[in-house]
Amino acid sequence: MENYEGFKKDVYSLTKIDLDAYKEKQMRRRIDSLVSKNKCKSYEEYVALLKSNKEVFDEFVNFLTINVSEFYRNPEQWELLTKEFLPELIAHSGQSLKIWSAACSTGDEPYSLVMALSTLVPLNKIKIFATDLDKQVIATAKVGLYSAKSIANVPADLKKKFFTPVGNSFQISEDVKKCVEFKEHNLLRDSYPSNYDMIVCRNVLIYFTDEAKTEVYDKFCKSLRQGGILFIGSTEQVIDYKELGYKRRYSFYYEKV
What secondary structure does DSSP assign to 27-54, as a single string? Predict the structure, then answer.
């Protein structure tokens, strides 16, 4: 298929998602498979379908934003968070920490944050700001219904306390849901909130170009207070962290200096 450049402009016009920020070969392969699945012979035909069919449009945005998530992903990193970093942040800022879960997908990470914090402070002190650019996954997050696979890594005591079986799925408790404020946000286009104790953004930027990653990590640093922590995925790293204003505490934890 030709005219991918024109297609990228059409996508930005429709969704405000900038495909230039994603690794092209990888993203184009994903998009081409979706175009073929919808029996379109060209990008132009697919764009016309996106404009006329809301179901296809929602499928495209969800597909594009690569929503793969689970609770307590990489449990050893969450254990370190609970035993070292959260107590450290609480000692500095008090029990009402400002935490942002960026690109939160279906809510697994912000809800994991609530549960991790609940072992240290009362639930009524916990407020997580959670954002994603995909309306559909935010709607899913607000419902709070998950598969057994999604919650497999949740510590047994927390699973028992905060989840109720519903058929083959599990419903997260209203007490946890109340602790999270969801909002649409585009990391590449929108302004960033400020003065956060912690920002969690895991396994999302691996799909971005190096230039886009640097831009986002720089904005995250500006959004953190001094001594604030950035928590990223186990396969990610901030290459130029010193230049951006971070100190590396562990391969997946960076502190603003």
Answer: HHHHHHHHHHHTT-SSHHHHHHHHHH-H
Alpha-carbon gap, residue 148 to 129, rounded angstroms: 25
Of 23-27, 141-145, 221-225, which range is least confident? 23-27
pLDDT tens for residues 196-213?
999 999 988 887 888 999
144 close to 107: Cβ distance less than 8 angstroms: yes
The CA distance from 205 to 139, in Å, is: 22
What is the SS3 assignment for 23?
coil
Gap between the Cα atoms of 210 and 215, Å rounded: 9
Judge contact between 62 and 134, C-beta under 8 A.
yes
Whether the predicted pLDDT of 68 surpasses 60 = no
Q: What is the DSSP string of 160-211?
A: HHHEEEETTEEEEPHHHHTTEEEEE--TTTSPPP--EEEEE--SSGGGB-HH
**Locus of tokens 């008090």:** 94
Inform me whether the pLDDT recorded for 29 exceeds 90: no
